[in-house]
Amino acid sequence: MNLKIRQEQVDDYDLTEMVVKSAFANAEHSDQKEHLLVSRIRKSKGFIPKLSLVATDEDNNKILGHILLSKIKISKDNNESIESLTLAPVSVLPDYQNKGIGGLLITKALKEAKELGYNSVVVLGHPKYYPKFGFKIASLWGIKAPFEVPEEAFMAIELRENALNNASGIVEYPSVFFE
Ligand SMILES: CC(C)(COP(=O)(O)OP(=O)(O)OC[C@H]1O[C@@H](n2cnc3c(N)ncnc32)[C@H](O)[C@@H]1OP(=O)(O)O)[C@@H](O)C(=O)NCCC(=O)NCCS
Fold this sequence. Notes:
By secondary structure, this protein is α+β, with helices and mostly antiparallel strands.
């Protein structure tokens, strides 16, 4: 396998969505509609093409995984809001899971987001997985989800030191997340 991480292109959309669908087919906490979420986010204002990445096997051009970071806001307790990103979703084809591809996608996406000038990322996900990449429980900064969620599953990472100091508030997801 000759793994490469690159920006997703429009020509990849159908294949990516099949990868996302297949990755979540047997996943816990899934509505099996994550591929539709990806499609809606791509058409929304919060979409950042440079932060939609695919992992490919260069030997056969097959897409093995995908990650998407898109724009959200944190509505602060003082009524101001700050821009942030959400990581949703990250997907690896079942036969290729546990080989480090998800980790590579996450690391690369966080690096790219930092280079583009974004300051933080929020994720709802497995509390044992995301801390490997530096995510911490969001409530440490007073950041809350806009829906019921186990506290330890709602996490955030600062891409710049102290970026989430004074970010105490509620995450606002665009409506495409709830359609
Ligand atoms: C979650 C996912 C993206 C991880 O990608 P991956 O390439 O399989 O993961 P990596 O090889 O980088 O990392 C493997 C590690 O993650 C752990 N891991 C994998 N999936 C996990 C999950 N859903 N929850 C908790 N831990 C998980 C493995 O146990 C392994 O741990 P170890 O390193 O301590 O042995 C992939 O398994 C996947 O697509 N799962 C189905 C979809 C999903 O649940 N997406 C995440 C929600 S947004």
